[in-house]
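R.M. (postdoc): so does anyone remember the format we settled on? I'll just put the structure tokens first.
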């Protein structure tokens, strides 16, 4: 903000030491009938800027609460054609947390230090799990998303000239030492874990290898049918991502022809051994059959998917864990209230495969525009997804990057 010369000149003299602070150690400046005081010229500058903005902003805007701002932010997301229903539910979750913590406060009153204090207290407060009496601490992932949500809302306030700086910039909030990390933080799988996925025979082996070698999202996997596997005239096979499954524990699963973003509609080349596995399975199924169906052959639900995945992890632990042969469904291994089981091997989350695939392509120096088209992860990938001609692209580096590693 450009200050009037009468304020700017005096501030510069303070900064150069030509104007000394008062005996009490404070610098002062009068803005009309308002007397401002601060320990340093920089702090005084910030207070002058805030004061001038508040004097210029209509009272109705000055009284805007964070709840009003978050509501405006939600409306923006709800009306955006690029935000799909399952993504909107995620926004709702983090907006609700931000509202509970800051909703009653005025936007103009929020300071970085105050936001940090409130979030740190929230991080250090045990939360009660909805499925039981057990408590847990908020993960770093959730804290980061709450900060991002609040920060995005504050950018709207800046655009509307309610504030001039985003108080969420450079926040430092640490999760509690007992906060879960492994269940929520996605990671890159090591070579041993990757080799297990290729070797371990299980009903979930094919879905796991699809996730690992294509990097598609779990909701895209659940919507896949065998008709989405296409082999062209050159012998190259592809998975076509045209829809997603809307997986919500509170309502029946359903298909959406709208992918997560426009960039998400894409075709992905298949590497070995996935290509052979899928083509063999394709011969034994109808084109309309789901690749990962429920027990009745229909669209899988979120609860069923979680059950299948827990079974996969337990069976893999039974095969590779220490000690092997331990009763995998023992009640002692179940984590009360969380519906998961303890394993001696490191648990793999479904999204870990996507992170692993992204990292593999990046490490293999696959060009950025090809990676964007492959994963459909960013809006900037739309131009590549829509216009890239795969028949003109050398897919060798992509297929080599996601291929099954050689055994040592």
């Amino acid at each position: 903000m450009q200050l009037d010369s009468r304020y700017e000149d005096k501030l510069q003299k303070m900064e150069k030491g030509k104007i000394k602070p008062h005996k009490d150690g404070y610098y002062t400046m009068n803005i009309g009938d308002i007397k401002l005081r601060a320990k340093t010229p920089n702090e005084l500058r910030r207070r002058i800027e805030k004061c001038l903005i508040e004097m210029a902003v209509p009272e109705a805007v000055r009284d805007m609460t964070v709840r009003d701002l978050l509501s405006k932010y939600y409306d923006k997301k709800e009306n955006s054609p690029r935000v799909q229903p399952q993504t909107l539910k995620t926004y709702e979750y983090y907006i609700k947390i931000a509202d509970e913590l800051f909703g009653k406060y005025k936007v103009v009153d929020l300071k970085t230090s105050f936001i940090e204090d409130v979030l740190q207290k929230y991080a250090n407060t045990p939360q009660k799990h909805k499925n039981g009496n057990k408590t847990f601490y908020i993960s770093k992932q959730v804290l980061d998303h709450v900060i991002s949500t609040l920060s995005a809302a504050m950018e709207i306030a800046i655009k509307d000239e309610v504030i001039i700086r985003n108080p969420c910039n450079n926040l430092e909030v640490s999760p509690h030492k007992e906060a879960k990390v492994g269940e929520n933080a996605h990671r890159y799988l090591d070579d041993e874990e990757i080799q297990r996925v290729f070797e371990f025979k299980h009903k979930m082996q094919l879905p796991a290898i699809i996730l690992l070698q294509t990097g598609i999202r779990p909701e895209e996997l659940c919507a896949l049918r065998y008709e989405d596997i296409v082999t062209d005239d050159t012998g190259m096979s592809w998975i076509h991502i045209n829809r997603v499954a809307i997986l919500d524990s509170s309502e029946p699963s359903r298909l959406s022809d709208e992918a997560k973003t426009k960039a998400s509609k894409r075709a992905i080349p298949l590497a070995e051994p996935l290509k052979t596995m899928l083509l063999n399975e394709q011969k034994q199924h109808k084109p309309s059959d789901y690749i990962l169906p429920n027990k009745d052959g229909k669209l899988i639900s979120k609860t069923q998917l979680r059950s299948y995945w827990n079974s996969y992890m337990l069976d893999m632990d039974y095969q590779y864990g220490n000690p092997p042969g331990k009763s995998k469904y023992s009640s002692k291994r179940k984590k009360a209230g969380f519906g998961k089981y303890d394993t001696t091997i490191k648990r793999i989350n479904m999204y870990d495969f996507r992170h692993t695939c992204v990292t593999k392509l990046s490490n293999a120096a696959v060009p950025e525009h090809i990676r964007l088209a492959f994963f459909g992860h960013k809006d900037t990938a739309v131009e590549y997804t829509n216009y890239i001609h795969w028949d003109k692209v050398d897919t060798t580096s992509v297929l080599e990057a996601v291929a099954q590693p050689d055994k040592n």
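R.M.: ...and that's the designed sequence above, right after the tokens. Also worth knowing: The chain is about 45% helix and 10% strand. The chain has three domains: 5-56, 66-159, 191-402.
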